[in-house]
Amino acid sequence: MNLFLRGTLMAVTWIAVAGGVVWVALRWTNAIGGVLCAGAVLLPFVYVMVCTLYPAWGDTKCPRCGKPALRRPDPKNPLGVICDACGYEDPELYRAYLDEMQ
Ligand SMILES: [Zn+2]
């Protein structure tokens, strides 16, 4: 799907969501609409808090054999990986948080 179509679809979706909240508030009670609006405002902050506080997770999956056996050959050098399962070696591949995974 191209970018313009996706952007248009998202704009229409969010206008429909906002209209739905207003419709719910008018149809039933303002309290439900208020709770939905507060949830919509707080959700991005909750997302940022969860992403900030969740521990970092390294990807140890080997690109050749697929087993989670990658390790860094030299702890002082951030580049380079070795797979203990199949012997795959790439001196220039970078994987974040490999040292923290062992
Ligand atoms: Zn491997």
Structure, described:
- The chain is mainly alpha-helical and 102 residues long.
- It has 2 domains: 51 residues; 46 residues, no CATH class.
- Helix content is 48%, strand content 7%.
- It contains 2 helices and 3 strands, in the order ααβββ.
- Strands 1-2-3 form a 3-stranded antiparallel β-sheet, with no helix packed on it.
- The protein starts with a helix and ends in a 12-residue tail after the last strand.
- The model has no long low-confidence stretch (mean pLDDT 89).
- Bound molecules: zinc ion (ZN).
- The site of zinc ion has 9 residues, from loops.
- Zinc ion (ZN) binds next to loops.
Task: Describe the oligomeric state of these chains in a short phrase.
Answer: single chain
Instruction: Specify the structural class.
Output: mainly alpha
| CA radius of gyration | 23 Å
The number of helices is: 2
- Tell me the span between the first and last alpha carbons: 41 Å
List the helices and strands and how they pair.
Layout: H1 3-27, H2 30-53, E1 70-71, E2 81-83, E3 89-90
Antiparallel strand pairs: 1-2, 2-3
The structure holds zinc ion.
Short note summarizing the structure:
With 102 residues, the protein is mostly helical. The protein has helices spanning 3-27, 30-53, and strands at 70-71, 81-83, 89-90.
List keywords for this structure.
3 strands, 2 helices, binds zinc ion, 7% strand, three-stranded antiparallel beta sheet, mainly alpha, 102 residues, single chain
